[in-house]
Amino acid sequence: MAFFQHLLPGIALLALLSWASASAHLHPPSQHGLSINDVPWHRREHWMRVANEATYADGEPCPQAPFGSAIVNTTSDELICVAANAVGRTGDPTMHGEMTAIRACHEVLSKRGLSPPEILRAWRDFSLYTNGEPCPMCMSAIRWAGFKEIVYGTSIETIAKGGRNQIYIPSSDILAKSYSMGHMTLMLGGILANETDPFFAHQFNESAPCPAGCQRKDTPGKRVSSCQPKPEWREIIQQREPEELLDSGRAYREPSPVNTFWPWQRLS
Length: 268
Ligand SMILES: [Zn+2]
Description:
Keywords: Metal-binding, Signal, Zinc
Signal peptide: 1-24
Domain CMP/dCMP-type deaminase: 42-165
CATH architecture of the domain at 35-207: 3-Layer(aba) Sandwich
Protein name: Cytidine deaminase-like protein
Number of helices: 11
Helix content: 25-40%
Bound molecules: zinc ion
GO molecular function, one term: zinc ion binding
Strand content: 5-15%
C-alpha cells in the first residue's frame, strides 16, 4: 500500500497533465464541408486562398514570413482588404499579417466615410481569414475588435514544428480567456491547411519542397540554401489556377491602383 501511496501524487499529476492537454485541444480542426454562419464551404476555401497568396502582392511567392490575411464581410461575402506580414518591410514588429490587415481595412473603411463608432461596429460583421493561426498579440486584437469569425489554415503547432519561433499559446486559449468581452467570435482552424502548410515548411528545413514558383538556391555568404522566386513565378502561379476557377472569373489581375490593399484583385 505504501508503494501505491508513493505513486499517487504522480498519478494525480498525470491526470492533471492529460486534462490540460485535452483543454488545449478543445477546438479541433474544422471538418471539410461545414457550412456555418450561412457561409458555403467553397467560399471559405476561396478566401483562405486569397489570404495565403497575399504575399504575392509584395513580389514574394516564397517569403521568409509568409503570413497573409483577408478580411471579408461574413454576410455579403465582400472582400474589405488583404494584407501580408510587413515586419521586415517596415521594421514595425507589430505588423503581423492580421494586424496589418486590421490597419489596412481601417483605412479602407475610413476612406469610405465611416465614422469611428461606425468602424468599431463594422468589425462585428467581418471574418478574418489568415493562413497561420493567430499569435497571442493578433488573437487579442481580433477579440478586442469583436470579429464575427476568425478562420485560420496552419496551426501554431505545425508552424513551430517547421522551425519558426512561436509563443506557444493556442489562439483558442485567448478565445476562452476573453469570455467577458460581451461578443462572440467563431473560430475555425485547419481550413485549406494542405495549401497553407507548405508556405511555412521550407524556411528552416532544406529538405522541404519550395512553394509553387520558387526554387531552392544557395545564397552567397549563407551556409544554408533558401527558396527563391523563379524569374517566371507569376506565370507559374497563374497557370496553377484550375480551369473552372478561371472560367468563373477568378483569374489573377494586376494590383488595383485605386485600392493598394487588394494585392491580386480577383473577381468573385
Ligand atoms: Zn501575430
